[in-house]
Design goal:
Strand content of chain B: 25-35%
Number of domains of chain B: 1
Order of helices and strands of chain A: HHEEHEHEEEEHEHE
Number of helices of chain A: 6
CATH topology of one domain in chain A: Rossmann fold
Helix content of chain B: 25-40%
Low-confidence stretches of chain B: none
Mean pLDDT of chain A: 94
Radius of gyration of chain B: 15 Å
Oligomer: heterodimer
CATH class of one domain in chain A: Alpha Beta
Mean pLDDT of chain B: 96
Radius of gyration of chain A: 16 Å
Number of strands of chain B: 10
Order of helices and strands of chain B: EEHHEHEEEEHEHEE
Structural class of chain B: alpha/beta
Strand order of the largest sheet of chain A: 4-3-7-8-9
Low-confidence stretches of chain A: none
Strand content of chain A: 25-35%
CATH architecture of one domain in chain A: 3-Layer(aba) Sandwich
Chain lengths: ~180, ~170
Amino acid sequence: MSFFCERNMDLKQVIRTVDDFPKPGVKFLDVTSILENPSAFRKTIGWLVKQSAIHNTDCIVAVDARGFIWGSALASEIQVPLFLARKPGKLPGNVVTKEYDTEYSTASLSMLKSANIFGNVMVVDDILATGGTLNAVGELLEEHWNIKPNKQLHVILACLDFLPGKKMLESKKYKLAYMEVY
Amino acid sequence: MDISNFYTTVPDWIWKGNEASDISQLLVNPDVFSYSVKWLTELTKKYNIDNIVAIETKGFIWASALAFSAKLPLHLARKPLTIPRPVVESRFMSRGRHYSLSIQKDSNIHGNVIVIDDILSSGSTLNAIGGLLKEHFGIAPANQLHAPIIAFNYLQGKKMLSDQGYLVENLITI
């Protein structure tokens, strides 16, 4: 598909919504449907590349698991170091960990203590709901690598505006960019 | 470019005597990561690949960069209860533990398929996905290229997969 088509593609037509997942009453945004469509995926990466240039990005932090998909493709394209924020017990060696509440439960994320994260950092995930996940990564970056919120650009494909995550992250002075709003 | 030095291990993690694999240095060095993605991209041309299957979680890292580079559809093999649609599932044992991976049932997987993971050890994970691709999507082993970044030679996983007719390529041999 041509660049023209990529640019004009409506991503909301590609992102699938699934009712009652992972629990009854929840409408789940399934962004993995983007991956089956190379033009749609390239559009999302193209947008991320633009955001990374605006932020003058030095490092990328990708959030386990779907954040890895967009974070790593972006890192490969713009040639900056890629760091992983992972679920508990996954990273080998000494880690720093932050617990947080999600839309459905409590969780935690860890990063390697020895990671050399510096400068302007881009944190990549797929969906922004309550903001607990991104806030946990943001706090880890500030507490352990002294990356202030204004040096962190949190990027997501879709922001759920009816949940408090966007407002919460903005109130903490993180930079925020999203492709689609629901 | 020899990038094998960027694969490192962490001794005594999680239990004493275990040497855990650490892929982080392959990711934090942009030249190294790009080199590995370029290697995968060349494989997709060499083997005329039509679709990519990525194994959760670290397979996602290379597979998505490849999907962007090669402009190919990407399908995920995921852990239980993470795919919000009907799935086909494979349960298997690896190093004495039970595992399960699923692929969305109505995925349009066809033609020549490349299966991406970070490490090939005993081969049980890739074999499980190979079985799913064969049984549910009609992809014969000869049309499946299993391409882990790292393969542990001493564990014979590569030989086991090759013996079953799968094509196997890896970038780093340990």
